[in-house]
Prior knowledge:
Number of helices: 5
Number of strands: 11
Order of helices and strands: EHEEHHEEEEEEHEEH
Distance between the termini: 30 Å
Mean pLDDT: 84
Shape: globular
Strand content: 25-35%
Helix content: 10-25%
Amino acid sequence: xxxxxxxxxxxxxxxxxxxxxxxxxxxxxxxxxxxxxxxxxxxxxxxxxxxxxxxxxxxxxxxxxxxxxxxxxxxxxxxxxxxxxxxxxxxxxxxxxxxxxxxxxxxxxxxxxxxxxxxxxxxxxxxxxxxxxxxxxxxxxxxxxxxxxxxxxxxxxxxxxxxxxxxxxxxxxxxxxxxxxxxxxxxxxxxxxxxxxxxxxxxxxxxxx
Length: 209
């Protein structure tokens, strides 16, 4: 988002000719280390079409990981087992786009005990299409789902489609089906779509340039 990170995310399978922030030297070094697992590379693309790194960590990025799991075209448990054992050679993903929304309660992104009141009932008013609701800080209490104490993220809503625009519409429709006090989520989906379109037009990154 323009003010808060990970408010919305778009994931898709990387094409062979995509512009990428990694180099053969980096991949060689990871192979020498026998590294098997995710890499979270946060960066910005400058007006010069160069990558400027913000973060490089060996973890699955929130909230993109949920979109990747929803596009996974193989058994999730088997895939995670192969990653852990070092047997994984790739990630079979459907050729679609996933759009993920972070649905939170006020005063997210701040954790203010005097403002955030846990125990609010959370309801799903409908059956979202082509969507997974990945619940976060909620719990069951007396037969009802309620918000839990702590960080006020309620759920990550992930929807998928061959069309980026359709994926965003499905995710926003699903977010509207969630009902609880103080609900908030990003609604300016046109901006991230334009950013992805720019990213996809950058072409192939030539090493050394």
